[in-house]
Amino acid sequence: MILKNCKFIVTQDTSRRILKNKDILIENGTIVEIGENLSGDDEVIDCSDKIIMPGLINAHTHAAMTLMRGYYDDAELDEWLRKMWSLERRLTPRIIELAAKLAIYEMLSHGVTGFIDMYFYPEIVAQVVKKMGIRAALGYTIMDRVSPIPLDRRLKESKEFIIKYKNDPLIKPLVNIHSVYACTREGIIEGCKLAREFNVNVHIHVSETRREVYQCKKEHGMFPVEYLAHLGVLSKNIIMVHLGWVTSWEIDLIKKFNCKVVHCPTSNMKLATAGSLPLLYMLNKGIIVGLGTDGAASNNVLDMFREMKNAVLLQRHSFWNTDVKAQHVLDIATINGAKILGIKAGRIEKGFSADIIALDLYAVNINPIREDNLISAIVYAATGSNVEFTIVNGKLVYSLDYEGHRLRELKIIYRELNKFIIESNKSD
């Protein structure tokens, strides 16, 4: 594939260069050349009216929770969770499949080339991921303190999933540990032990609310990150999500063990969790921070462009300064997201995976646009609806031309998901 005459290329390379009027040659899923007048027998896409940039990585979501979009919008986290868990008891593999398809189509059409998921039936989601061509980190979720599923069964399922997908080109298996409050001490230790055995990541919610932090302190005499350190599970393979109520000495522990972090500003604001992850403080310490939407039940959209803007706004509102810039959040949504997912992507550079998206240069909401305001336009003005095509691993997996082909399938998905919600409400 050749992307021809790209008007702007946001490389995200070490110099953060913006190139103009260049071609990109892609072979075997990899960017092999960036230059002028590149030719070959490849498929050619005219990009003279497009902004080309790396795909965005949604570093934390619950994909199939698109089912609950708009289902219970105006409650704080504890009440909201009880409502979600009540509905989730009725979930079936078919509903998970349909909701995951909807989520992945939304992400691909909005420029997301990979995501990290924590939800039920990861085998079903994995099949949808393979079919639709997106990248994903998936795995079974340990929540043995609140789930009727025995820990030994969940560990066995997790191990089998890891073995099956360990060398898959699109799927990165991981171990999901829901949280300190939803897991026993044994569940946390054994889940992390399994992850170490196979050198895969652990994905866990941490310090999302004041209540969680106070409960952990009351029960264990430590804050959540301290407790995880006490259990001996912190490592470079730990991905901590939220951290809105984290202390400075816990951040030192995160740095000491090279843990990774994911910020979900929109979901945190919508669920009124207060607190705010100190983004720039963490970045300045060299901690790898990514960006996530969380699920559509607590965000309503899976739009990483909106998430980037909200990340900046929340930091400025919370810390009373403008130290977090547009470039910071573009970096965490691309370069850092790829590091957390464990792939060589996030840059448009020779030798990197061809996970690439294109924005409409002439979209009314981002113009007038120039090289000097391009990053500003991407972070503060663009939305996912400005995406014209998405390439993952060198394959065109979404373009505006696909809309018509998908419409019939999407209508079926809409009908079945709405029917499920209506029938569930009646049974309540």
Number of distinct helices: 16
Shape: globular
Largest sheet, in brief, is: 8 strands, mixed
Distance between the termini: 53 Å
Low-pLDDT runs = none
Record field, number of beta strands: 18
Task: Output the structural class.
Answer: alpha/beta
Average pLDDT score? 96
Q: Give the percentage of residues in beta strands.
A: 15-25%
How many whole angstroms does the radius of gyration measure? 21 Å
Oligomer: single chain
Question: What is the share of helical residues?
Answer: 40-55%
Plain-language structure description:
- The chain is built from 16 helices and 18 strands.
- It is of the alpha/beta class.
- Strand 1 (2-10) and strand 2 (18-27) form a beta hairpin.
- Helix 4 packs parallel to helix 5 (185-198) and helix 13 (326-333) crosses helix 15 (374-381).
- It is globular.
- The N and C termini lie far apart (53 Å).
- The mean pLDDT is 96.
